[in-house]
Amino acid sequence: MITFQLNGAPIQIADQGQTLLQVLRDDLHLSGAKLGCGEGECGACTVLVNGRPVCSCLIATETLEGAAVTTIEALAETPDGSEICSALARTGGVQCGFCTPGIVMAWAGRHPDDTPDDALEGNLCRCTGYVKIRSALEQTGSLPTKPPSTFDKADLSLKDALACLAENPDLIPIAGGTDLVVRAGHNLQSLRLFPLARLNAPELHQVFREGNTLVIGALMRWQDLLHDPVIAQTVPILRDVAYGVGSPQIRNAATIGGNIATASPAGDGLPALVALQARIRLVHRDGTREMPIADFITGPGRTQRRSGELITGFVIPAKCLGQPQTFSKVGPRKAQAISKLSLATVKVPDDPAGISFAFGAVGPIPMTCPKAHHALASGIRDENHLRSVAEQAMSEITPIDDMRSTASYRRRVAGNLLIRHCRELFAHDS
């Protein structure tokens, strides 16, 4: 059985491999959250989990042990929720109403720094447009809802978790689940999930110094990375990556460890960590090991993680901390889009080329283009030389034609991005 709080009251549900949305609508008959896209893009299914807006269609119920879930049915009865609903009605921000519950939840649980545009990034409305919705939300004086009290769900030591994983190799570790649930087609019954939320391991949720290096815990959510002051000061490239990972609903669930473990060629975090020359830290009940991220990813969806191992963090070397960094993501739209290609570039003082870079979505793994990197180190970095380096990089990457783009487009844009990044970072030398 899974025990959590629903709208302030304890509830138990059977562990039947369902999503939170399936339980809310089919079992508990709470119909405010709607099934729209099923992939975390429309926001119609938004609820609050521990005060954070998330897509309930992507939340595996196994991850809810000890959590506090709030739906529109309860929020609308609170002063803040009632004020938001009334403002939407007054301004004509409601027509068919399908998206409205998700909009109310997203605004009620927004980050304190969010504007209406930020908070609504993950909510689609096909009736009213957004002018009246934005106007309504700007009229509400309510502050973001404070996270409700929760049970202590971190009931498992890291040692016991590793023993369990070693003895049960079919267990699948799950953090946010925003990729896993989609890949499973929302049919989780056949999967044995191991919720990492149970881990009593605070360091996995933190950013901290370890000597001269910076360690990022694998369970850091992208929304927290986006607003973390240490990240902004030392590795701002990860803040820039976080903006494009997804909507606030996705960022509130998805973790940096999950982004790397998924090993998607289009994963936004992969090229950034490779360019930062980060090392991944893995722990097994028999010991701990580290390796470069560039070596950890072996192909689409394939890594060197062994059975029984957990990713616990990422170690960023001192030489990359606080250096000029830039990240570019090219997609069919500004937000909520899978990369057509991406490029992460970091100034590295002791590197012969002066920079470290990695492309995403133009090969089966993050592409570092060693020949182009070597060529960059051997020239004077004028325009002719940069164009030559870009041409070399274009010959090393291996993009494909797919539904999002053509190989020729990706190749040309990759070369242009590399020139742009080099100009920007080398300008710091003058």
Automatic annotation (TrEMBL):
Keywords: FAD, Flavoprotein, Iron, Metal-binding, Oxidoreductase. One of its GO terms (molecular function) is FAD binding. Residues 1-75 form the 2Fe-2S ferredoxin-type domain. InterPro entries: 2Fe-2S-bd, 2Fe-2S-bd_dom_sf, 2Fe-2S_ferredoxin-like_sf, 2Fe-2S_ferredoxin-type, 2Fe2S_fd_BS, Beta-grasp_dom_sf, CO_DH_flav_C, CO_DH_flav_C_dom_sf. SMART domains: CO_deh_flav_C. CDD domains: fer2 (cd00207). Residues 143-321 form the FAD-binding PCMH-type domain. This is Molybdopterin dehydrogenase. The lineage of its organism: Bacteria, Pseudomonadati, Pseudomonadota, Alphaproteobacteria, Acetobacterales.
